[in-house]
């Protein structure tokens, strides 16, 4: 029994200390068999003396106590972990609905966050737009204030010049009306033409001299046998009251041009109507209407976008094409309405443009295209002509000049003009309700004559007047309004 115990103890010690335990068996001095084993100390190189035994024992006790404490702590932690695992398993079955509700709540919160971010982005964008608009409005306000100051200064200067013109020129009108009108035109030409932004102010000043020509004039209207039919050419003797067809909807329509083709090409007809609003710096849109009713209702059937920006109110429609002046140039362009492309471009040699020789009302109306029974015309002026109206017939296919006439009618002294049967007619005022058609220049005889035919500017701002030889009517744009005038011609 003792041997078995020793062997067990030895095996335990070997497991704990490894192979350094040694067992010995031998007879003692009395001849009895004895068992003994040796275990090397893991810490001491040699055995301490009797005076060192107690500290060693105390160290061993402290170490034993620390190991026991650590073991107890490990057991407590193990028990705690077992308790937590048990609780987790017990709660797992009952917590499933709570997890699902939490997931739904999380999804809802994520959606709300996304919506709030989107709303924040929209608000930031709107805020930036408001800042830009505010900046633009401030710049526009500053510009308008500067223009107002400049206009006031020019108005004061012009008023003084008008007073001087009246004082110097009016007494001589009764004796030499024609010479006096030409002298006044020369004085008008001294006004600054290099600043086209103030052309409307200039035009008001010009109208004083133009209208006064006929207050003392001895000329009379040419009233001959009238032709109320539709065939044959003649001289203009009467213009009826304006008939308003429609009014523009936006500020871009304060002035513009509207047209019908007197010689339409398929698929267009005599009823097809076109309209262009010409307020702005990039004029490209051409509104097309199938007939007059559609035009009056304001529902275009098509909108053409020109590849080049146009200028002024001098455009015309002729034989299925739009003829117009390109912006800030003397180049004329032919735009094929069916192919929707520019087919011809031609420089109008020496013609003034962009405010050099406009009509009295301004609007960069340096080059005015017109159509009558004779074909396509250009009404303009040059430096050589010194501001007098120059007329040229144009080849509608190539835009080459066929023939040219230089009149002695100053372009800036009249408000508008149009061609009928090869004769140029001019209007003295664009704003007066009692305006007059004051000059006629006959290209057949190269002569000018004074007229006094009543012309009503009902809305006091006529920016375009053209003749339609098919309908024998004048088409005009008067302060947002598109109007027509019946006319009468005397027989040749």
- Rg of Cα set: 52 Å
Please state the structural category. alpha+beta
The end-to-end span amounts to 162 Å
Number of strands: 24
Number of helices: 6
Output the helix-strand order: HEEHHHHEEEEEEHEEEEEEEEEEEEEEEE
- The residue-averaged pLDDT reads 80
- Biggest sheet details: 6 strands, antiparallel
* Share of helix, binned: 25-40%
What characteristic shape results from the CA principal axes?
rod-shaped
Low-confidence segments, given as residue ranges, are: 170-230
Share in β-strands: 25-35%
Describe the structure.
It is a single chain. The chain is built from six helices and 24 strands. It has helices spanning 2-17, 53-92, 96-169, 177-189, 199-212, 292-297; strands at residues 22-27, 33-38, 226-227, 234-239, 243-247, 256-260, 273-277, 283-289, 302-310, 316-318, 321-325, 331-336, 341-347, 368-372, 375-380, 388-394, 401-410, 416-420, 423-427, 435-442, 447-455, 462-468, 473-478, 481-491. Strands 3, 4, 5, 22, 23 and 24 form a six-stranded antiparallel β-sheet that branches. Strands 6-7-8-9 form a four-stranded antiparallel β-sheet. A hairpin with a 4-residue loop joins strand 22 and strand 23 (473-478). Helix 4 runs antiparallel to helix 5. The longest helix has 74 residues, at 96-169. Residues 170-230 have low confidence and may be disordered.
């Amino acid at each position: 029994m003792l041997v078995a115990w020793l062997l067990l103890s030895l095996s335990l010690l070997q497991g704990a200390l490894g192979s350094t335990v040694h067992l010995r068996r031998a007879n003692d001095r009395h001849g009895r068999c004895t068992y003994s084993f040796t275990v090397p100390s893991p810490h001491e190189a040699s055995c301490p003396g009797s005076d060192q035994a107690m500290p060693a024992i105390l160290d061993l006790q402290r170490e034993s106590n620390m190991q026991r404490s650590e073991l107890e702590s490990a057991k407590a932690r193990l028990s705690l972990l077992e308790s937590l695992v048990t609780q987790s398993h017990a709660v797992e079955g009952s917590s499933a609905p709570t997890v699902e509700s939490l997931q739904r709540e999380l999804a809802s919160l994520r959606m709300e966050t996304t919506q709030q971010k989107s709303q924040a982005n929209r608000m930031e964008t709107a805020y930036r737009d408001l800042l830009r608009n505010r900046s633009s409005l401030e710049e526009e306000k500053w510009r308008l204030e500067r223009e107002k100051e400049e206009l006031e200064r020019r108005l004061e200067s012009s008023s003084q010049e008008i007073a001087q013109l009246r004082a110097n020129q009016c007494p001589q009108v009764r004796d030499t009306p024609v010479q006096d009108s030409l002298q006044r035109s020369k004085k008008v030409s001294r006004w600054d033409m290099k600043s086209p932004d103030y052309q409307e102010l200039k035009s008001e000043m010009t109208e004083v001299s133009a209208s006064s020509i006929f207050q003392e004039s001895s000329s009379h209207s040419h009233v001959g046998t009238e032709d109320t039919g539709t065939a044959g050419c003649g001289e203009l003797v009467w213009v009826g009251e304006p008939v308003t067809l429609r009014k523009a909807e936006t500020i871009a329509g304060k002035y513009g041009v509207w047209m019908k083709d007197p010689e339409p090409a398929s698929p267009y007809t005599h009823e097809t109507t076109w309209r262009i609003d010409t307020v702005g710096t990039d004029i490209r849109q051409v509104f097309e209407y199938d007939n007059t009713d559609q035009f009056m209702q304001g529902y275009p059937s098509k909108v053409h976008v020109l590849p080049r920006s146009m200028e002024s109110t001098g455009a015309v429609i002729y034989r299925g094409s739009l003829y117009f002046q390109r912006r800030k140039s003397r180049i004329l362009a032919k735009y094929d309405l069916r192919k929707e492309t520019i087919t011809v471009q031609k420089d109008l040699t020496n013609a003034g443009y962009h405010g050099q020789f406009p009509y009295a009302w301004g609007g960069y109306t340096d080059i005015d295209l017109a159509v009558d029974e004779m074909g396509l015309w250009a009404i303009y002026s040059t430096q050589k002509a010194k501001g007098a109206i120059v007329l040229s017939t144009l080849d509608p296919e190539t835009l080459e000049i066929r023939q040219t006439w230089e009149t002695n009618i100053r372009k800036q002294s009249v408000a508008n003009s149009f061609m009928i049967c090869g004769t140029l007619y001019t209007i003295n005022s664009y704003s007066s309700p009692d305006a007059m058609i004051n000059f006629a220049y006959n290209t057949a005889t190269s002569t000018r004559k004074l007229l006094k035919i009543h012309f009503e500017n009902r809305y006091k701002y006529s920016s375009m007047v053209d003749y339609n030889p098919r309908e024998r009517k004048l088409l005009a744009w008067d302060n947002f309004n598109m109007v027509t005038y019946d006319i009468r011609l005397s027989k040749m």
